[in-house]
Design a protein that fits this description.
transferase, Cytidylate_kin, UDP-n-acetylglucosamine1-carboxyvinyl-transferase, Chain, Multifunctional fusion protein, binds adenosine-5'-diphosphate, binds cytidine-5'-diphosphate, about 675 residues, nucleotide-binding, Enolpyruvate_Tfrase_sf, 5-stranded parallel β-sheet
Length: about 675
C-alpha cells in the first residue's frame, strides 16, 4: 500500500494482463456480523482485509466473539465463533467504528436489540453521516438509543431495550436515504422473530435494491428466509434463527472490479493506433474472483460499461474486458442500481464522444464524502465541464487534447474517488496526475495502485527517474532512500551492483584488473542477486547485506567499476529498475550514462573531511572498526579513480543541480531534493 502524502501517476499508455481482486466489503462485513450472531463457528474464506473489516473485527472481539487467527492473513481463512443470538447480561463497551457505515449501522441495530451499554463512536466524518431513520425505526420497537452529539447522527449511546410495547405492527423504515438502514434491520430483527413474524415496511422509494439483494442472499446462507413483498414489505418468519453455514466464500468486490472493467474499455487499445505491431496483438484485462454469478448489484456496471463501448466476456467468476468503441460513447443513465460503481462512469465520461449524464444518484451526497460535489470539483480540475444537481451529474469531456489539465486530485478520505480518478492517467495529452492521500484506498482495496501498475504499460521516457550521483559518503544512498519513500518510488542502489560484483569476483579468487575483465563481466551478467525488504541484499541463498558494506568491498567495487565490460554488463539490470510509478537511482553515472533523460539530476557532494567523518561514524555505529585518516586517504583515492576512469567517470551531468551537503542535515537535503522535484511538476507546490 502507498502511505505517501501523494502519489504521482505518470501518463499511462496502455493496459494488459490479469488481476485478482480483494473480497467485497459489503459481503465481508455482513458475513462477519451474521457469523457473530450465529451459534457455532463460521470459517470465512477470502475476507477482505481493510479498514472497515478491521473495525468490525475489533468490535466483534470486544463483544466476546472468538476470532482465529487474530487478524486477516492473506490466503488464510478466518474463523469466527458467534454469540448465538445472545450477549452476556450487562455487557458494556465503547466501539470505535472509524468511517465504516457497514459496521456502524448494522451493529447499532443488533446491539440495540441485544441489550447492554454501548457507545458507538467513529471518525469525524462518521458524525456527519445520518443514522436518524434507523434509530427512529429501532425506537418504535422499544430500543433505547441516545444521540451523544447532533440529533440524527453518531456518536450514539445504546442502553437496554424495553420490548413491552412491541406489537405485531410493521416496523417502518425510510428507504430513500441509505439502504444500509433496511439492511441493518433485516440482519438484526431475526433476534426478535423467535415466536412471531416480524414485518418491516419501507417508507418512500427503496434505493440501492441490489444491496438489499446481497443482504437477503446472505441471510439465506445463514438460515434466515426473508419474504420479500415487492421490495416494500419484508417478513422475517417466526422461528427464524441464525445458523452458521460452516464455511463461506466472500466473492471479490464488484465495485472494485469497475476500475478494471473501465481500464479494459479505456486502455487496451494500441498505445499508438498507427502502430501496426501493437494493433496485431489484442490486449485485454482479465479479472478473477467475480463474474456472471455474482450476487452483487454492482456487477451490472458491466452493462453500463458495455453501453459506453467496452467489450466484455464473462464466466461464473471471471471477466475479460477489452476496448470496443473508441472514443467511448456518451450515455444518459439512471444509476440507482449501481451507486458505487457509477462513480467510475464519471471518469470514463472524460473519454466519451459527448455529454454523459448520471442520474438518480442522490445517495452519493451522504457517502464517505459528498460524492457529487467531489466528482464535479475534481473532474473540472482535469478540464471537463460539469453540471451538478441534487441527484445528478452531467459531464462534458475536455474538448480537445490541449484542454486536458494536469491535476492534483483531492480524495476526501474516499477510496472510490482515489481509485476512479487514477484512470485519468490515460489522458491523450500524456499529462501526469497526482492522487492525494493514496492510502485512503485501504477502505476496500489496500493494494489498488500496485494492482493497477501491474497491468499498466507506460513509455520509458514517461516513467520519472530522479538521479542522485556523487562521491562516496556524500549521502547519496541515505537521501535516495528517503526521497523514494516520500514519493512511493522504487530505489536503485547502483553501487550495490558493483559491490556485489567485486565481492563475487574476489571470492572467486580473481584479481580485479583488466586481465580478468571479460570473466568478471560474465559473472556480472549472471549474478544470482536479489534485493529484499529493508534494503537487504541476497547473493543466491546468502544474505550479503553487511559483507558488501565494508570499506574493502567499496574499494573492490571501485576497481571492478573501472572495467568497461563490467559496466556494460550491468546496464540492462539497472534499466530494469525503471518501473511505475517512478525511480530514484543513486550512483556515479545515473544522470550521465544510465538515465540521461531523467527529469531531475542531483549531484550531491560534501568536503572530503566531512565525508570521512560521516563514514567513520557510520562504520562505528555498525560495529566495524575504522580510522579517520585511513578513511580520508581511501576516500580520496576512490574519488580520484572514479573521476579519472575512461568509462563513465564520476562528474556532474551538465543538466544536474549541485548540492554541497557539508553543512546540511539529512532532513535539509531531503527537503531540498523534494522541493526541486515539486518545482518540476505541473501541480504546483504540495
Ligand atoms: N547531510 C548529511 N549530514 C550528515 N550526515 C549525513 C548526511 N547525509 C548522509 N549522512 C550520513 O553519512 C553516512 C554516509 O551516507 P551514505 O548515504 O551511505 O553515502 P553514500 O551513499 O553517498 O556513500 C551515513 O551514515 C549517513 O547517515
Ligand atoms: N553508478 C555507479 C555506482 C557505483 N560505482 C562504483 O561502485 C563503488 C561503490 O559504490 P557505492 O555507491 O556503493 O559507494 P559509496 O558511495 O557508498 O561509497 C563506487 O566507488 C564506484 O566506484 C560506479 O562506478 N557507478
Amino acid at each position: 500500500m502507498f502511505t505517501t502524502e501523494f502519489l504521482d501517476l505518470p501518463a499511462l499508455d496502455s493496459a494488459h494482463g490479469c488481476v485478482s481482486l480483494p473480497g467485497s466489503k459489503s459481503i465481508s462485513n455482513r458475513v462477519l456480523l451474521l457469523a457473530a450472531l450465529s451459534q457455532g463457528t463460521t470459517t470465512i474464506h477470502d475476507l477482505l482485509d481493510s479498514d472497515d473489516t478491521q473495525v468490525m473485527l475489533a468490535a466483534l472481539k470486544q463483544l466476546g466473539c472468538k476470532i482465529k487467527p487474530d487478524s486477516v492473513t492473506p490466503g488464510q481463512a478466518i474463523a469466527v465463533t458467534g454469540i448465538g443470538g445472545q450477549l452476556p447480561g450487562g455487557t458494556s463497551a465503547t466501539l470505535f467504528l472509524g468511517n465504516a457505515g457497514t459496521a456502524m449501522r448494522p451493529l447499532t441495530a443488533a446491539l440495540a436489540l441485544l441489550g447492554g451499554n454501548f457507545e458507538m463512536t467513529g471518525v469525524p466524518r462518521m458524525y456527519e453521516r445520518p443514522i436518524g431513520d434507523l434509530v427512529d425505526a429501532l425506537r418504535q420497537l422499544g430500543c433505547r438509543i441516545d444521540y451523544l452529539r447532533d440529533q440524527g447522527f453518531p456518536p450514539l449511546k445504546i442502553g437496554a431495550p424495553d420490548f413491552s410495547q412491541f406489537s405485531s405492527l410493521p416496523i417502518q423504515v425510510r428507504g430513500d436515504v441509505s439502504s444500509q438502514f433496511l439492511t441493518s434491520l433485516l440482519m438484526a430483527l431475526p433476534l426478535l422473530a423467535k415466536d412471531r413474524d416480524v414485518t418491516i415496511e419501507v417508507v418512500g422509494e427503496l434505493i440501492s435494491k441490489p444491496y438489499i439483494h446481497i443482504t437477503l442472499e446472505l441471510l439465506t446462507r445463514f438460515g434466515i428466509e426473508v419474504r420479500n413483498d415487492n421490495w416494500q414489505r419484508f417478513v422475517i418468519p417466526a422461528g427464524s434463527r441464525y445458523r452458521s453455514p460452516g464455511a463461506i466464500h466472500v466473492e471479490a468486490d464488484a465495485s472494485s472490479a469497475s476500475y478494471f472493467i473501465a481500464l479494459g474499455a479505456i486502455a487496451t487499445g494500441a498505445a499508438d493506433e498507427a502502430d501496426a505491431d501493437n494493433a496485431a496483438e489484442p490486449k485485454s484485462i482479465r479479472i478473477l474472483g467475480v463474474g456472471r454469478d455474482s450476487i452483487q448489484g454492482d456487477i451490472r456496471f458491466i452493462e453500463a460499461a458495455q453501453a459506453m463501448g467496452a467489450q466484455v466476456e464473462n464466466g461464473p467468476n471471471w471477466l475479460q474486458v477489452s476496448r470496443g468503441s473508441w472514443p467511448l460513447k456518451a450515455i444518459d443513465l439512471d444509476c440507482n442500481h449501481i451507486p458505487d460503481a457509477a462513480m467510475t462512469l464519471g471518469v470514463m465520461a472524460l473519454y466519451a464522444d459527448g455529454v454523459t449524464t448520471l442520474r438518480n444518484i442522490a445517495s452519493w451526497r451522504v457517502k464517505e464524502t459528498d460524492r457529487i460535489a467531489a466528482m464535479a470539483t475534481e473532474l473540472r480540475k482535469l478540464g471537463a465541464t460539469v453540471e451538478e444537481g441534487a441527484d445528478f451529474i452531467r459531464i462534458t469531456p475536455p474538448a480537445a487534447r490541449a484542454d486536458w489539465k494536469a491535476a492534483s486530485i483531492h480524495t476526501y478520505d474516499d477510496h472510490r474517488v482515489a481509485m476512479c480518478f487514477s484512470l485519468a492517467a490515460f489522458n491523450p495529452a500524456k499529462l501526469p496526475l497526482r492522487i492525494e492521500d493514496p492510502k485512503c484506498v485501504a477502505k476496500t482495496f489496500p493494494d489498488y495502485f500496485e494492482t493497477l501498475f501491474s497491468v499498466c504499460q507506460s513509455a520509458c521516457q514517461q516513467i520519472p527517474v530522479i538521479c542522485i550521483d556523487g562521491p562516496t559518503a556524500s549521502g547519496k544512498g541515505t537521501i535516495a532512500a528517503a526521497v523514494a519513500e516520500a514519493l512511493g518510488y522504487h530505489l536503485l542502489d547502483s553501487g550495490a551492483l558493483y559491490r556485489i560484483t567485486g565481492l563475487a569476483a574476489s571470492r572467486a579468487g580473481l584479481e580485479l584488473d583488466e586481465a580478468n575483465e571479460e570473466t568478471i563481466a560474465e559473472m556480472a551478467l549472471d549474478l544470482p542477486v536479489r534485493f529484499g525488504a529493508d534494503q537487504r541484499v541476497w547473493l543466491g541463498d546468502e544474505d550479503i547485506s553487511l559483507a558488501i558494506r565494508t570499506e574493502q568491498a567499496g574499494m573492490n567495487a571501485s576497481r571492478v567499476s573501472a572495467l568497461p565490460a563490467v559496466r556494460a554488463a550491468l546496464v540492462d539490470l539497472q534499466l530494469s529498475f525503471q518501473q511505475l510509478p517512478g525511480l530514484v537511482a543513486d550512483g556515479r553515472d545515473m544522470g550521465t550514462v544510465i538515465f540521461p533523460h531523467a527529469p531531475l539530476k542531483v549531484y550531491l557532494w560534501a568536503s572530503a573531511q566531512c565525508r570521512a567523518e560521516r563514514r567513520y561514524k557510520q562504520l562505528i555505529s555498525k560495529g566495524i572498526s575504522a580510522n579517520i585518516s585511513t578513511l580520508l586517504a581511501d576516500l580520496e583515492a576512490r574519488d580520484a579513480r572514479d573521476m579519472q576512469r575512461a568509462t563513465a567517470p564520476l562528474k556532474p551531468a551538465e543538466d544536474s543541480l549541485q548540492l554541497d551537503s557539508s553543512e546540511m542535515t539529512i532532513e535539509e537535503v531531503v527537503v531540498q531534493v523534494l522541493t526541486w522535484w515539486q518545482e518540476r511538476q505541473p501541480f504546483g507546490r504540495a
